[in-house]
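[job 0412] stage=complex_fold ligand=manganese (II) ion status=START
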Amino acid sequence: MRVVHAADLHIDSPLRGLRRLEGAPVEDIRLATRRAFRALIQLCLDQEAELLLLAGDVFDGDWRDFNTGLFFVRELSRLRESATRVVMIRGNHDAESVISRSVPLPEHVTILAADAPETVIFEDLGVAVHGQSYSERSVEANLAKAYPSRRSDLLNIGLLHTNATGSSDHANYAPCTVGQLVDHGYEYWALGHVHRREVLSAGPAPWVVYPGNLQGRHARETGPKGCVLIDVDDLVITKVEPRDVDVVRWETVRASASGAADVDELLQEVRRGLSDALAAADGRPLLTRVIIDGPTPMHEALAANPEPVEAKIRAIAADLGPVWPEKVRFATHHPEGEPALGGNVELLTALRAELFRLKEDPEALRAYLGDLEPLAASVAPLLDARPDDPYALRERIDEIESLLLGKLGAGQALSPGKGEGKGKTTPKGSL
Ligand SMILES: [Mn+2]
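[job 0412] stage=complex_fold status=DONE, emitting structure tokens
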């Protein structure tokens, strides 16, 4: 018997951070979560899977119209051909109170109840699937505690949307512990909620698995994405392996400037990173966040005038293939730790302290932004964030520090001719 376990499909989630990407396949990217779901259904057909488990967050939120539901039904109906049964639960993103519309689902699809744990038994397969949907977005209770005891004559699978590891990257919904799940007695826990692929317990009894989300949706959801394929032989799980079904790949490409004598060498390093990531994406369109870091004497020049280097990186990507730098971040620092500020240590210290305070205290940052309101429109492109959103800005304060120190130190710290100037004296920051 073959079982497919997927979670966090987030169908019709908009893929974020893709404005202004020259030549990117925007339509393919826009439909990525749907195309990944179609690939999941195709995998079930190809593998002749008996059972498909969907562990919550099937939808990203309330449907904009009925098309999301109609697409879902059309794809699920294809599973009649392979006689694949489907059991799903609702998670925080598609809780009962969140999704206001509904369409009738095919008879081979079961959504487990939200008011109490429920068990579906497939006598012909020898499988019991236990689980509970979310009734509302925020579920504080440890749902797994109330899950039924195992059925000793069957293979027991627990379907659960939970933060089982206390991950701070995800809301602490339906919290539980891995130990609790292991002790519960099931053979397999099909989890959802954490978007990273993770095997928390690798069998034989039990397996506890997050398949990760089906399709990366932004720069922090990197690497291969997909589902898990489970082989069962005579009520014993014999194999659990990941399968990629994502149609667009996200990756972080990090290039250290520390070993680069000049910008050309730095660009070589970036080219290698982009090229490796492109090979790993296996023909999929690739969206990368490029991070330039490490200690380098070029720090002030890069911080003060990053645009020309960014443009060169984009040109390298355009030349390499279907890869688009979603953002280029400059996070280098001065080799001696302190940028040369012409001895103005007091200014440097005060600026650092103020930025630190703003990073720690979103309210202080909000007040600051109020003062800066008349400038908001002109600084918005520079900040690359809505200037009225302190939480978005907080993530960028380190870069803002770099940029400010680079600009302040530019007069002192830049040695003319650094960069690509071949013998000629270039103006400051012209990399
Ligand atoms: Mn999710």
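The pocket of manganese (II) ion is lined by residues 8, 57, 91, 93, 193, 195 (CB under 6 Å).
[job 0412] exit 0
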